């Protein structure tokens, strides 16, 4: 209500609700402040590094032209006939290191350049690419919401990423290119303001370097998760692998590689790189505060003991815990508009249920991530970005953007339940 009705900043809303809830739940004032500080610190302690380094990497990938290079290579490789699939693959690859807002603003000019050049309907060609961005934003670490859920549920970042990729690919195909077949007749005249200003081809980094750096976090996280299962490692090797596979270290290694190959090796000074990184951290500062606020709220629920009561009540409902997590996130998403806030709020409510029902924490991250993308409408900034950039009517925005986001949520849940069936 504070976010939706009173337009309060989500971070402030979380703090206000944490204080009010703590007092109503009869936590002593001194202990209440300690709970809020502990929740903030515990949540941000392991996430601040990942999110800040991820933002720096994404900004560098965009500014250096690596994202543009990935797109041009894929489009040139498949030709005009399969250009939609090339854009989907581009959105998926670029969406892994880039935060959603940055990815959207970066990808839309690329979409429009294809629209202007080949006279293809804008929604038909653009929506599948944005579906890729939505899925990576909601399902895949190291994006803020799934990364925060991994920490809150004590899940494994590498395994969650692996499961997420298994679910993400069919979800993107169905909610993207397949669904877009029904949208060819939607009239869209993209604003001329958004005609792209491309970096000259001779100034772009190499293809191998661009793909390699964008995918390096995925390769390291998945590799360090799978190697112990594939090989009998010595104790020392396992310790080193654990260190290298830590998400913070993965992002630090990737940023170091990117800083050289996309930075200094391309003629950028350390001063220029530092400016890029400073701007990147400014972009995600509010996200960090919102995540910290959600941690404070969760800690108040834990310290008051009400989390166990909530878990007990939820356990009585005739729903699978994964479905319940998805449903709570979907309801909050429809109410608030923010996928990140929806996922983090649902996590605080569902966390005790994982312990009581022994639900798979990796799958719960994905179930809540899918639910947090459900029905984007007028209270979601993504809805308005899509409407205004593509110059659509409200009706056409609902039948394209809102329908696509809801399809991702439903198909994502279906994928989670299928994975659970195969694992049980």
From TrEMBL:
Keyword Transport set for record: yes
Keyword Transport set for record: yes
Membrane topology value: Multi-pass membrane protein
Chief localisation class: membrane
Membrane-crossing segments per the record: 12-32, 44-62, 82-108, 120-140, 160-183, 204-228, 240-263, 284-302, 322-355, 362-378, 398-419
Keywords assigned by UniProt, alphabetized: Cell membrane, Membrane, Transmembrane, Transmembrane helix, Transport
Record family assignment: Belongs to the GntP permease family.
Top-level lineage group: Bacteria
Pfam entry (one): GntP_permease
Annotated localization: Cell membrane
Protein name according to UniProt: Gluconate transporter
InterPro entries cross-referenced by the UniProt entry: Glcn_transporter (IPR003474)
PANTHER family per UniProt: GNT FAMILY GLUCONATE TRANSPORTER, HIGH-AFFINITY GLUCONATE TRANSPORTER
